[in-house]
Structure formats: C-alpha cells, structure tokens
Amino acid sequence: MNTDKDNKIIEIREETFFCDGGDLGHPRVYLTFENGRVQCPYCGQEFVKV
Ligand SMILES: [Zn+2]
C-alpha cells in the first residue's frame, strides 16, 4: 500500500480558489495565497501562484 504523500505542488492562476482534496476528498475549503504560496489545512497539498 502506498501511503506516501504526493509532494506535487499545484500551480494556480487565480488569486482565490478552493481545494476539495481531490482523490482523498475533504470539505471544500477556499484558500488565499500568502506570499505566492498556500498549503491546504485539510490535505496538506501545496499550491503556488503562477
Ligand atoms: Zn485540500
């Protein structure tokens, strides 16, 4: 079983967006960038503004 976290950083063009956990799934949470980066508090996915 592969339990390793996927460290892929997702690139986002919008200032505000939401994460719903993708395959893992969690409640939809809206995220706003701080200094061009943000990490989802639910699934730990990192996003970077492009
Ligand atoms: Zn998430």
Short description:
By secondary structure, this protein is an all-beta fold. It has one domain.
Cα radius of gyration in angstroms:
11 Å
Please give the order of strands in the largest beta sheet.
Answer: 1-5-4
Total E-strand runs = 5
The number of helical elements comes to 0
Encode the helix/strand succession as letters. Answer: EEEEE
Q: Helix- and strand-based class?
A: mainly beta
Give average pLDDT, whole number.
Answer: 88
Helix content: under 10%
* Largest sheet: number of strands, sense, barrel closure: 3 strands, mixed
Question: What does this entry look like structurally?
Answer:
With 50 residues, the chain is mostly beta strands. It has one domain. The protein is 0% helix and 36% strand. It has no helices and five strands. Strands 1-5-4 form a three-stranded mixed β-sheet, with no helix packed on it. A hairpin with a 6-residue loop joins strand 4 and strand 5. The model has no long low-confidence stretch (mean pLDDT 88). The structure holds zinc ion. The site of zinc ion (ZN) has 7 residues, from loops.
